[in-house]
Design goal:
Layout lengths: L11 E8 L5 E11 L5 E11 L10 E6 L7 E10 L3
Parallel strand pairs: 3-5
Antiparallel strand pairs: 1-2, 1-4, 2-3, 4-5
Length: 87
C-alpha cells in the first residue's frame, strides 16, 4: 500500500493585471457580478497580490491565478498562466 497524500483542490480565479511595479509580484483585479437585495446586478471587484516568479506579466494581461500558502503578509496567490496578452 502506498501512502499518497491527496492535495486539496485550490481556488483558481481569472483577472486583469493592474500593476506590475513590484519585483516578482503583480496586482490582479478579479471582477464578479452579484445580485443585490433589490435584484439589481452590481459589479464587485477585488484586488489580489500574486507571485510572478519570472516577471513575465504586464499591465492589461488576463491571467489565471491559484491559491497557495502565504508567501508574504498579504500575498497568497501564484500565477498559473497568462490567458491573454495585452494588445
Amino acid at each position: 500500500m502506498e501512502n499518497v497524500q491527496q492535495r486539496n483542490s485550490r481556488r483558481t480565479l481569472v483577472g486583469m493585471v493592474v500593476s506590475d511595479k513590484m519585483d516578482k509580484t503583480i496586482v490582479v483585479e478579479v471582477v464578479n457580478y452579484k445580485r443585490s437585495k433589490f435584484r439589481k446586478v452590481v459589479k464587485v471587484s477585488k484586488r489580489y497580490k500574486v507571485h510572478d516568479e519570472n516577471n513575465e506579466c504586464e499591465i492589461g494581461d488576463r491571467v489565471e491565478i491559484a491559491e497557495t500558502r502565504h508567501l508574504s503578509k498579504d500575498k497568497f496567490f501564484r500565477l498559473v498562466r497568462i490567458v491573454e496578452k495585452k494588445k
